[in-house]
Structures are given as structure tokens and as C-alpha cells.
């Protein structure tokens, strides 16, 4: 059996490894236009802030390690044309410019995503940088120490991390976004208001509700213009989101309007013997019980593994995703899963977001730290659709707990009565996770009495 994999993204790497693990005799060929695989781009901001021991460790596989597993890795090979019905690929060797065609029994599409590049005058300036690939990371890192002023466009995770790292290393930072809150897609207002104050304490110029309308090179940098004002910096870095990198397959597969390839529970596409995974494909989003586009490495890795498990026949069903994520900014751990009150309403859900703040362990301990906690739940059913936590204490695993609760379609009542241990070194008699669920129950009961 010959299997062709287009793209050595996280999904592509894990698909290839799982296919060989499940089917040692399969001939697996991976086509990748770059010369590296498995780059953990989420570490770019950390590298810029000198928190990475060795940048080579930002890769968990190499072409050589993949070959040692019996996988044919054709690096610097770009697939330029595809006939998915006949499973035929046209490939150019970017080093030699030789062109070839290969036919396979099955095709796996793991072409990943590409940065959103809006049609803004001046966006092709050499002073405008992107933050996704290894090449992007090197380009930013090479000039980071010499920068004095940095403008970051986009206040999602990428932009928020970059702005934070540049500010704590002494740069003058402007953070610009067209929406009204930092990290608006991930956290509710109680959380974003608090983290915005941290940026302002660290002298970041936070510019919200303003879209960039023009970039213009100056004698010593770049000017970023919005409808309300203009801002100058040495460079501008774009972190405004991603789109599926699927133009190559246009018209051959069922897709969402943005180009994300629709897959079923077994990573199968609308074309027989063609699979897709990762940022090129859809996910099943458990909070809404519908397909969606959520480009995350965690989704890509699990979907890639599922391709390998299901490449011969459908065996292992996809359990969906809650889009669980985390970030640390100015010493504050911020973790989230599912939806918040704003994003849930955008998806058409009638929800309440319950927010409380409490210390993570008893006050009789010599030290303790407060945790800001939230649960987002449906008004009529009490079904949990989201949660978030923020603290100087490590609350990272809290999001994983609530993620599983969402996946299992638990209600606030069930989570409140779930078994959590008590030990004063680690927790209050009532852990802050069931505590916020209990607060949600109280809120739900109050609604019932007023109706």
C-alpha cells in the first residue's frame, strides 16, 4: 500500500509515524517544501525572550529521525498539482527544479495553515514580519536585540505573547487590535480587563478597536496608520490569525467557506481514500456540537494519529475538541477551554458565565494565592460549555479538568459534586473548580426563583 502525505506539519508528522506503527509494510512518502519538520512555533515568543535552552530542541523530529522510522521524507519537494480521484501528485524538487508525478493508493492532506495577510497598503514592506514558521522565527530573533520600538498587530495568543516578551526585555511596545479586548476569543471580560492592566503596568501602549489601514516605511522604521491615529516602530509583527492552506485542492473536496477541508469522525474527506488532518481540516467542537475551524497543535497531533489508526478502515472515532489552551503573561497563568460568555453568544448559545475569585489553599498556610475562576454554562440545561482560570499559582491543569467535563457533556451540578481531594498544601476543603460550579448552581437556582 502506497500512501502519500502532503505536508510535514504536526498532523503530517504524527500521521506518518502512526501509519508506520500500525502498518509496518506500508510505503509512506511525505512531501515537504521546507527543509525542517515538527517546528513548535508556539515557542517563538519564548525564544525571543531568551527562555529557550536550545532552539534545536523546538523540533521534536527531524527528517533523519523520520527516515529511521521507515518513512520516505522528500524535503524541499513541493506538490504543485493534485488529482485526488486518481490519487496523482505533481511534484517539483525545489533544489533541482526537476518535475515528477507519483500515484498513490491513499492521500493524506496535512498542508497546515497560512497567516492571514489582509490587503493593506504597505503590507509587503521588509519591516513587516510574520510569526509562524522557523524562517519567521529566525528573522525576528536575528534583530530582536537591536530593536527599540516594536508594533504588534493582533492581540490573540501570538500577539499577546510577543508584546509581553518584548516589553519585559525593555522594548517600547505598541499592541494593536481591531476588537475591544486582549485575548477576546479565549477569555471573558473579567479576565481580559485584568490582563490589560498588566500590559499597561509594563508600559505597553494598548490600542484596541482600531484596524490597521496602512503601513508606510520611514527613514528609521515603519509607520502604522489606523482610522484614529498613527504609530511608529522599528518593525511591525503580524499575528492576526490563520487560514487553511488548501488552495491546491480547490473544487475537489467538501470544504467550509474559508477552505477548511471537512472531515468525518475518522478523518476521511468527501473523496474516497483521501484523508485530512490538522490546520488544513475541520474539527468537531464539542461545546457547540458542530464542525468548526480551530487551528491548534493539539488538535493537529490527535487528528494526525487518527489518520494512522483509520487509514485501512474506520477504527477509532474522533472525540472532538474543546480548544483548550493556555498562556503565561507577566507571571499570570491564564488557561481556558471551550467558550466564554461572549464567544458562546456569537455561536448562538444562551449562556451564563459565573465568575468567582478565591485562594487556592487555606489562609492558615504561610502563603496562598488567589485564583480567578469562571464556568460558562447553558441557561436551560446547566451543560458546561467553557471555563477559564487565572492566577500566579500554576492552575494549568484546571483547564484540562473542565475540558473533559465539556467532552463528557457534564452539567454544573455534576461538576460541583465530583470528587476532588483536600490537602492544605494543595487545595481548600472545596477546590476552586467545584467551588465555581457551586456558585453557578446558586446562580441557576436564583434564576429559577425569578422566572
Please provide a written account of the structure.
The protein is α/β, with parallel strands linked by helices. The protein has three domains: 2-35 and 60-113 and 242-310, 3-Layer(bba) Sandwich (FAD/NAD(P)-binding domain), CATH 3.50.50; 128-238, FAD/NAD(P)-binding domain (3-Layer(bba) Sandwich), CATH 3.50.50; 325-444, FAD/NAD-linked reductase, C-terminal dimerisation domain (Enolase-like, domain 1, 2-Layer Sandwich). Helix content is 26%, strand content 27%. It has helices at 10-22, 44-48, 63-68, 134-144, 157-168, 189-201, 297-310, 341-346, 396-407, 412-416, 432-450; strands at residues 2-6, 27-32, 72-75, 77-83, 88-93, 99-103, 106-109, 113-115, 128-130, 149-153, 172-176, 205-207, 214-217, 222-225, 230-233, 235-238, 242-244, 274-276, 283-285, 290-292, 325-329, 332-338, 351-359, 370-378, 384-391. It is globular, with a radius of gyration of 23 Å. The N and C termini lie far apart (63 Å). The model has no long low-confidence stretch (mean pLDDT 97). Residues 2-304 form the FAD/NAD(P)-binding domain. GO terms for molecular function: oxidoreductase activity.
Amino acid at each position: 500500500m502506497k500512501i502519500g502525505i502532503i505536508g510535514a506539519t504536526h498532523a503530517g508528522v504524527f500521521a506518518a509515524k502512526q501509519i508506520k506503527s500500525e502498518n509496518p509494510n506500508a510505503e509512506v512518502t511525505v512531501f515537504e517544501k521546507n527543509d525542517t519538520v515538527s517546528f513548535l512555533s508556539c515557542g517563538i515568543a519564548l525564544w525571543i525572550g531568551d527562555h529557550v535552552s536550545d532552539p534545536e530542541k523546538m523540533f521534536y523530529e527531524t527528517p533523519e529521525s523520520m527516515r529511521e522510522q521507515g518513512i520516505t521524507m522528500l524535503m524541499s519537494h513541493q506538490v504543485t498539482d493534485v488529482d485526488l480521484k486518481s490519487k496523482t501528485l505533481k511534484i517539483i524538487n525545489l533544489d533541482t527544479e526537476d518535475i515528477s508525478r507519483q500515484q498513490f493508493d491513499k492521500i493524506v492532506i496535512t498542508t497546515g495553515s497560512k497567516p492571514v495577510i489582509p490587503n493593506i497598503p504597505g503590507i509587503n514592506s521588509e519591516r513587516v514580519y510574520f510569526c509562524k514558521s522557523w524562517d519567521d522565527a529566525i528573522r525576528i530573533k536575528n534583530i530582536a536585540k537591536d530593536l527599540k520600538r516594536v508594533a504588534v498587530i493582533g492581540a490573540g495568543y501570538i500577539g499577546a505573547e510577543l508584546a509581553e516578551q518584548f516589553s519585559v526585555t525593555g522594548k517600547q511596545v505598541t499592541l494593536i487590535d481591531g476588537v475591544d479586548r486582549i485575548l477576546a476569543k479565549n477569555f471573558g471580560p473579567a479576565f481580559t480587563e485584568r490582563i490589560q492592566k498588566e500590559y499597561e503596568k509594563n508600559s505597553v501602549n494598548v490600542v484596541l478597536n482600531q484596524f490597521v489601514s496602512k503601513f508606510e516605511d520611514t527613514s528609521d522604521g515603519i509607520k502604522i496608520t489606523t482610522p484614529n491615529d498613527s504609530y511608529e516602530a522599528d518593525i511591525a509583527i503580524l499575528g492576526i490569525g490563520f487560514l487553511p492552506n488548501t488552495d491546491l485542492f480547490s473544487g475537489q473536496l467538501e470544504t467550509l467557506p474559508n477552505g477548511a477541508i471537512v472531515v468525518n469522525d475518522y478523518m476521511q474527506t468527501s473523496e474516497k481514500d483521501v484523508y485530512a488532518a490538522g490546520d488544513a481540516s475541520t474539527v468537531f467542537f464539542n461545546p457547540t456540537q458542530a464542525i468548526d475551524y480551530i487551528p491548534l497543535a493539539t488538535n493537529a497531533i490527535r487528528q494526525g494519529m487518527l489518520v494512522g489508526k483509520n487509514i485501512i478502515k474506520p477504527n477509532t472515532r474522533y472525540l472532538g475538541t474543546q480548544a483548550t489552551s493556555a498562556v503565561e503573561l507577566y507571571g499570570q497563568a491564564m488557561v481556558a477551554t471551550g467558550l466564554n460568555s461572549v464567544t458562546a453568544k456569537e455561536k448562538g448559545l444562551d449562556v451564563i458565565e459565573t465568575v468567582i475569585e478565591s485562594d487556592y489553599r487555606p489562609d492558615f498556610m504561610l502563603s496562598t494565592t488567589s485564583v480567578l475562576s469562571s464556568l460558562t454554562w447553558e441557561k436551560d440545561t446547566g451543560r458546561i460549555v467553557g471555563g477559564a482560570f487565572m492566577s500566579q499559582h500554576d492552575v494549568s491543569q484546571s483547564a484540562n479538568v473542565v475540558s473533559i467535563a465539556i467532552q463528557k457533556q457534564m452539567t454544573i451540578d455534576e461538576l460541583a459534586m465530583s470528587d476532588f481531594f483536600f490537602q492544605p498544601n494543595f487545595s481548600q476543603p472545596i477546590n476552586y473548580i467545584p467551588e465555581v460550579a457551586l456558585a453557578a448552581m446558586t446562580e441557576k437556582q436564583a434564576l429559577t426563583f425569578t422566572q
